[in-house]
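From the methods appendix. Each design record in this collection lists the tokenized structure first, followed by the designed amino acid sequence. Records were kept in a plain field format so they could be parsed without special tools. The example shown here is representative of the layout used throughout.

RECORD:
FOLD TOKENS (127 positions):
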């Protein structure tokens, strides 16, 4: 009934910044439509989605910071003359993998939440 996050992500640039207006607007629009029903079951699922999304971004930010720290430590130990800038470039390259992992996780959760909301809405129609 509703498009998957994967469909939306495919419509966006391959690496939009976290605060990209198009990404944010699409997400807000989809969430507004999916969670528009005031039924407590739908709102509970909205809470689950919000919590899962926040957790995914928190894990992403933590992993990204840890990756950069690890790269800087490696280049410091090896005494590379321009170690910090090399470490930042390497960590940046690894960030794409972290983004893909985060988006894959969110896509799976989104599909589950969408399925559950659709089941609630179907129950409401039958009542």
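DESIGN:
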């Amino acid at each position: 009934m509703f498009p998957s996050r994967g469909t939306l992500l495919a419509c966006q640039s391959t690496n939009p910044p976290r605060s990209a207006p198009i990404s944010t607007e699409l997400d807000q629009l989809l969430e507004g439509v999916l969670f528009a029903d005031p039924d407590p079951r739908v709102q509970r699922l909205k809470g689950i989605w919000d919590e899962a999304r926040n957790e995914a971004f928190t894990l992403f930010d933590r992993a990204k910071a840890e990756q950069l720290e690890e790269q800087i430590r490696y280049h410091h130990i090896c005494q590379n003359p321009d170690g910090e800038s090399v470490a930042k470039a390497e960590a940046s390259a690894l960030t794409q993998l972290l983004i893909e992992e985060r988006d894959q996780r969110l896509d799976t959760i989104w599909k589950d939440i969408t399925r559950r909301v659709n089941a609630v809405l179907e129950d409401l129609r039958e009542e």
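APPENDIX NOTE: Residues 3 and 54 are 21 Å apart (CA to CA).
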